[in-house]
Amino acid sequence: MIDQNADVVIVGSGPTGSAYARIIRRDWPEARILMVEAGPQILPEIGGHLDNVLDLDKRAELEILAQGGDRSPRLSISKEEWEARRAGGFDASLLRRSGLFIANEGDDGDGLFAGFSAANVGGMGTKWSTGTPTPSQAERVPFIAADELDAALRVAEGLLGTHKDPRGPDPIAAAMRERLGAAFNPGRSPDRFVQPMPMAATPGPNGPRWHGTDVILGDLVKEPDTSFRILAETTCRRINHDNGRATGVVLARTGEDATWTLSAGTVIVACDALHTPQLLHASGIRPAALGRYINDHYIVSQIAELDTDVPMRAMSWIPATNELPFSVTIAPASLHTMPKSSELGGQPIGMGVFCPADIDEKNHVAFDDAKLDWRGLPAISIRWTQSEGDRERLEWAKQTALKVAEIIGRPAPGFATFVQPVGSSLHYQGTVRMGERDDGTSVCDRNSRVWGFDNLYVAGNGVIPTVTATNPTLYSVALATFGARQVAREGRQRQAA
């Protein structure tokens, strides 16, 4: 029997929803917390990372389950598509990645925007890259004091279990970073030097163990159901609210029509940058900025050739700065499924230059109330247009990719520099963005509380209001800690009263 009320209901079980649960439990030990997840639990470890499953066939099966209601497998990339990719053409492989879809399918020009739907216990925490770099100055929320955000980032590193170099020591990577540092470090502060990519992982003799939301939740999953519970394969259809206060949620078993209502002291919507605004829209909560300002960085991809007989294992990072707005990730490339030039003799090194995109109110998520998705919510589409500034920065980013390749060794023969469709990084944001004041350009305040509500919060990359060129999970978890502390503080006050 499911209790019909909870102190806190969290819709979504990904990294930020789990961070809310963990911080609320730390600061409010008596809170009754219920987490709602539309997808299934796919691993014995609640929220575990799929990359820890070493059987690749089994992992592929779990990848499909992780898509929730969208379980149609993607086709393998064809030889013709690989050849197009090598020539710098459209990266068709993106359409084959499990769960990836082109949100505005049919627009094959500059308005292409890739999106992703993950629905399983742990959300994207079961599938993310585990990269946890810190945001640059340009990426930081300007109305949150630097010392406050730095402290929140340290808390987020602890929640995620960040390790500064989980594949180190790696002398080949270290030597490469030294060469790159000679070119990029002058004028930078030490924290923005070329460095190993920090990752949410634990080193081990057989390679790192990758962290999912199992690490964030910790001992919460051992608590009795009356204290903490995850309702898997349960869809939130609506947030009930009255006069600026969320009163509860309407739930349904995923794929079923029958619903029930659960009362809540506080509601936190922590789906993702597409589905969080979707649920607010379906609930009649529609601030002017809801779903607008959708943004993501581009990825300029380049394969370089490193002349070495000793394999490089570690991932490296060139952080973005005010002077160079690109974050560059560098890691060994696996070409076992790709056509390979006979001229390629050294180790192939993959590179992604993360290039920021201009923020525009007109770029938005649209909802079709007449067409429902598998969750029973209004169907999503995306309207997005590339700016002239985007095109100029992309040319700069391509030159940066070639410069880095020359320092590493040389651009790999047979592989062109190419730009992935915006959104392909799955780091899209801005659709429930935070703001300094309620002036119609934001959805929530600096603590992620929805404007006009006492007890309704949003979480995830969607709250980030700035341009980014960095993996945002650490950043969005840090922002979640502000809201979580406020929820716990106000909950204790209500309890005392």
TrEMBL record:
<dbReference type="InterPro" id="IPR000172">
    <property type="entry name" value="GMC_OxRdtase_N"/>
</dbReference>
<comment type="similarity">
    <text>Belongs to the GMC oxidoreductase family.</text>
</comment>
<dbReference type="GO" id="GO:0016614">
    <property type="term" value="F:oxidoreductase activity, acting on CH-OH group of donors"/>
</dbReference>
<dbReference type="InterPro" id="IPR007867">
    <property type="entry name" value="GMC_OxRtase_C"/>
</dbReference>
<dbReference type="InterPro" id="IPR036188">
    <property type="entry name" value="FAD/NAD-bd_sf"/>
</dbReference>
<keyword id="KW-0274">FAD</keyword>
<dbReference type="InterPro" id="IPR051473">
    <property type="entry name" value="P2Ox-like"/>
</dbReference>
<protein>
    <recommendedName>
        <fullName>Choline dehydrogenase</fullName>
    </recommendedName>
</protein>
<keyword id="KW-0285">Flavoprotein</keyword>
<dbReference type="Pfam" id="PF05199">
    <property type="entry name" value="GMC_oxred_C"/>
</dbReference>
<feature type="domain" description="Glucose-methanol-choline oxidoreductase C-terminal">
    <location>
        <begin position="362"/>
        <end position="480"/>
    </location>
</feature>
<keyword id="KW-0560">Oxidoreductase</keyword>
<dbReference type="Pfam" id="PF00732">
    <property type="entry name" value="GMC_oxred_N"/>
</dbReference>
<feature type="domain" description="Glucose-methanol-choline oxidoreductase N-terminal">
    <location>
        <begin position="139"/>
        <end position="298"/>
    </location>
</feature>
<dbReference type="GO" id="GO:0050660">
    <property type="term" value="F:flavin adenine dinucleotide binding"/>
</dbReference>
